[in-house]
Write a structure and sequence with these properties.
The chain is an all-alpha fold. Helix content is 71%, strand content 1%. Helix 12 packs antiparallel against helix 13.
Length: 650
């Protein structure tokens, strides 16, 4: 600081500066004293040293010591952009505009990046549109791609596609390159608009753009996420024909998509293909295969693959093990997951928070309460770092077990350790209190939640309304139903079903039917499921209105919703007790089976067929014929054989 002041003082008093081509010769003393380097590099370095240097640079023109050049301002723009000082950046930009300073496209690209980091993508778009008219800077595909990338990084995918369409229209002079297409395809895939992405892909040759590995990988990933894996695999063949050879990323996308579909055999074939093409599996490849094997319930094979991973010098990490544990829990095999945790510890990998919370939740859901408690004790004993998710899993499990006092103690311990309960925590406690009949206590807890409105989300309201309906507190449930709407929440099928159940159980069947019709009116976002229909079937059959229930059943079948065992039992009971003389149960079930099989709804039809055999109600010849025709189609037989081979090989 002292050196800076002395330098300025010397320049001011002695006035020994002589200028040549806009540079001060005596500036060399000033640069050397501050270790800036040679005079020729002054402008570029001053702005990257210290804020004090900027103040000094502003004062120097007043002393007649230095004239600010364009390169100085470019350096300042870079400095402001990298530090995120948007206000100073815009002031400097306006200053350069007023002084008619030339601005390079490279400078604008730095500004676009700064806007992107500050989540100001609309400002980037606005500046891009003003580049030519206000700053006389020609726009090229480089600045276009920079703005497009900025929008996508801010996850505004609709806006990105709008911007892309606007700029690449015939009225604009900018022609997109491969990167432009890659960014647009990425935005479309993120939106789930895979057909739009494919359309962009087919437009590339017309724009003299050749798809690269990133184009194919992005599109294949989008197709796999939309369960269109076969199309993605066709792209793999196409890219090789076009001379673009896949890398491990492209293969991993397809392997992951196949494993999620449970097609392990095809995934293994792709791994073999990787080796033939000179690509070697990495951690992502192994993780995808291990996850697929766990989802298929093939734990021994998953462990074998884990050992092979280690043998091939691919070190498994916490993600690999967590993948195995998550797959086991989804298959209802949480105890096997505990064994994996122990296996991890032996190999020097401690279980992470995600793995433990998944296991704890799984054990409680499988009603293995003692094992869950033992796992909790082991966690605390081994010093596992706890968080809100693990505590919430414990509280939810204790509520499922009916240990509400212990759940409340766990909540108090959670808060005392500085963790904030979330909506899942409170909804678990509310559900637990209602399950043991503590309706008043549940309402008191709801009042305590009043201080934190974020906790009262759709899930919590649904639990509260369902609990009140089950407790026969219909008036209170209706009050909260109105409050739910007043807060701007949108009910889902569970919320509607809970309210309809409460109304029907309290004899207000007509009101329940009104709510049901309201669901249908709301469209595809909230269509009734088989549980909703069963609630209404039960209510209508109880009051003897079986013909209305039959009409409703026909409507259910027309909407594509399949009946289940509970549906059949409701109608069988009604036909047996409410119809005089008792109707033919066998005829009802036979007609239902034939209708479902004829419409290729095999799962629902098969369940009813099994129910008939369990009840010793033999299907007639027509039902058997339709069942055999549908189940024994060549494609289905081929699929069954492939599945059998897949299970044998894997």
């Amino acid at each position: 600081m002292r050196n800076i002041k002395c330098a300025i003082h010397v320049i001011d008093l002695k006035n020994t500066c002589r200028w040549s081509s806009g540079r001060c010769e005596s500036i060399s003393f000033f640069c050397t004293s501050l270790n800036f380097g040679t005079p020729g590099k002054t402008e570029a370095k001053v702005n990257r040293v210290h804020p004090t240097t900027k103040r000094c640079f502003k004062r120097m023109p007043k002393f007649g010591a230095y004239k600010t050049g364009d390169s100085t301002l470019y350096s300042l723009i870079d400095n402001y952009a990298s530090s995120g000082d948007i206000s100073s950046l815009e002031k400097l930009l306006n200053q350069m505009k007023l002084e008619d300073r030339p601005l390079l496209e490279r400078t604008f690209i730095e500004i676009f990046k700064a806007y992107g980091r500050a989540h100001l993508h609309e400002k980037a778009i606005d500046l891009f549109e003003r580049m030519v008219d206000e700053f006389c800077c020609k726009r090229t595909v480089r600045s276009f791609n920079s703005v497009l990338n900025t929008i996508i990084q801010n996850e505004c995918y609709h806006r990105a596609l709008e911007f892309y369409s606007c700029i690449t229209s015939n009225s604009m002079t900018i022609s997109p390159n491969v990167l432009s297409f890659n960014l647009a395809i990425k935005a479309a895939c993120k939106l789930g608009a895979i057909d739009k992405a494919i359309q962009l892909f087919w437009e590339m040759p017309a724009r003299s753009c050749v798809p690269d590995i990133f184009t194919y990988s992005t599109l294949m990933d989008g197709l796999c996420k939309e369960s269109r894996v076969d199309e993605a695999i066709c792209l793999l063949d196409e890219m090789q024909i076009e001379g673009c050879f896949p890398n491990s990323v492209a293969y991993n996308v397809l392997i992951n998509g196949l494993c999620k579909k449970g097609e392990i055999r095809r995934a293994v074939k792709l791994v073999n293909n990787m080796f033939l093409k000179g690509c070697f599996p990495d951690e992502a490849t192994y993780n995808a295969l291990i996850c697929g094997l766990c989802l298929k319930g093939m734990l021994p094979k998953a462990i074998e693959l884990l050992n092979l991973m280690v043998k091939n010098n691919r070190a498994p990490n916490a993600v690999t093990y967590a993948t195995i544990i998550n797959g086991l829990v989804k298959q209802g095999r949480s105890l096997d997951g505990v064994d994996v945790i122990k296996f991890m510890e032996k190999r020097g990998f401690g279980g992470n928070q995600y793995a433990y919370s998944t296991l704890l939740s799984g054990l409680f859901k499988e009603r293995k309460f003692e094992e869950a408690r033992k796992l909790w004790k082991d966690m605390t004993k081994e010093g596992i770092k706890l968080n809100e998710v693990i505590y919430s899993a414990l509280i939810d499990g204790l509520c499922r077990e009916g240990k509400l006092e212990e759940a409340e103690e766990a909540l108090a311990d959670m808060i005392s350790k500085g963790f904030t309960p979330n909506a899942f925590t409170y909804s678990s406690l509310l559900r637990g209190l209602f399950s043991i009949g503590s309706t008043q206590k549940a309402l008191l807890m709801w009042e305590k939640m009043e201080s934190n409105c974020d906790m009262k989300n759709e899930v919590c309201y649904t639990v509260l309304i369902d609990g009140l309906c089950r407790a026969g507190k219909l008036e209170e449930a209706l009050i909260f139903w109105k409050e739910f709407w007043a807060k701007g929440f949108s009910p889902d099928v569970i919320t509607y079903s809970s309210m309809i159940n409460g109304l029907c159980n309290n004899g207000a069947v007509e009101q329940g039917l009104e709510l049901f019709n309201e669901m249908l009116y709301r469209g595809s976002g909230c269509q009734p499921d088989v549980i909703t229909y069963n609630i209404l079937f039960n209510a209508l059959c109880r009051r003897g209105d079986i013909s209305y229930a039959m009409d409703l059943l026909n409507g259910m079948l027309n909407t594509g919703c399949d009946p289940d065992v509970a549906t059949c039992n409701i109608f069988l009971k009604a036909l047996r007790e409410k119809v005089s003389p008792p109707s033919d149960e066998k005829r009802f079930l036979n007609e239902l089976v034939v209708r479902l099989f004829s419409n290729e709804r095999l799962k629902g039809a098969s369940e009813i067929l099994v129910l008939m055999l369990q009840k010793f109600i033999l299907p007639d010849l027509t039902a058997w014929q339709v069942a055999v025709q549908q189940l024994c189609k060549p494609k289905k037989i081929r699929a069954a054989i492939d599945k059998a081979w897949n299970d044998l090989i894997c």
